[in-house]
């Protein structure tokens, strides 16, 4: 073998071939179709698909066919939002923040953490910058998890105590049916959120305090409010509103990012809520279009 050259691994090539085949298809494929297309032994193809499904790289559908999974789609989304590609993404987030007059953030799953891939500077995002990761504990990442596998949803629900699992299960259902979720914090929680955000922002300027800042951000993530049900959100009364979230899908229909805005206000009218939701949804669709065009930008 020539110096400096690595011998290819046939098992690895088979895995890559299956992933690339599914990525190139708009429709799901059965294990038999995958095996026949790639001239693989059917038991070998089945074993590879089972391993990929366990890791969330592919998803097995009720009809026993397979498509790309949310975990792999999330990896692709993070690759598409790396620093050298994402000027357009920062611009979209700034545009959204300007239109709703509050902070905005875009996050992606990263194993058992939630990673901020783009943020604007505001009360919602004080102390948080691109690349910050916080533990993935419900309700963080709900807009992505709502479209993940049932097993992944259950793992996420179990990051909190049983007393709130029914509530968070309803949150996932709301995100699937309505396409968004709105959250409230009790009025006496807002000052605490703002103080912790300011502390994290202050620590961001002190590299030696990275560990402490991480603990502050983790603590900030534990201050969770309650989600509104649709009937309450539609009432013609002013309501306290901490933040709103919506999923961002890739071209394969996988939820790969969560878009958030954070009014952090105690008296948001129904008209204002509707405007927030309209702007949030419109921004999510623009980001989806942008993700689709990233390869064209690189070409």
Question: Brief description of this entry?
Answer:
This protein has 299 residues and is an alpha+beta fold. Helices cover 49% and strands 18% of the residues.
Explained architecture:
- The chain has 299 residues and is α+β, with helices and mostly antiparallel strands.
- The protein folds into 2 domains: 10-68, Orthogonal Bundle (Arc Repressor Mutant, subunit A); 73-298, 2-Layer Sandwich (Beta-Lactamase).
- Helices cover 49% and strands 18% of the residues.
- It has 12 helices and 12 strands.
- It has helices at 10-24, 31-38, 42-54, 70-80, 87-100, 142-145, 150-157, 165-178, 190-203, 210-222, 230-233, 270-298; strands at 29-30, 58-60, 65-68, 103-110, 113-119, 133-135, 181-184, 226-227, 239-241, 243-249, 255-262, 265-268.
- The strands form 3 sheets. Strands 6-5-4-11-10-7-8 form a 7-stranded antiparallel sheet, with helices on both faces. A 3-stranded antiparallel sheet has the order 1-3-2.
- A hairpin with a 2-residue loop joins strand 4 (103-110) and strand 5.
- Helix 5 runs antiparallel to helix 12 (270-298).
- The longest helix is centred in the last third of the chain and has 29 residues, at 270-298.
- Mean pLDDT is 83; it is low at 295-299.
List the helices and strands and how they pair.
Layout: H1 10-24, E1 29-30, H2 31-38, H3 42-54, E2 58-60, E3 65-68, H4 70-80, H5 87-100, E4 103-110, E5 113-119, E6 133-135, H6 142-145, H7 150-157, H8 165-178, E7 181-184, H9 190-203, H10 210-222, E8 226-227, H11 230-233, E9 239-241, E10 243-249, E11 255-262, E12 265-268, H12 270-298
Helix pairs in contact: 2-3, 5-12, 9-10
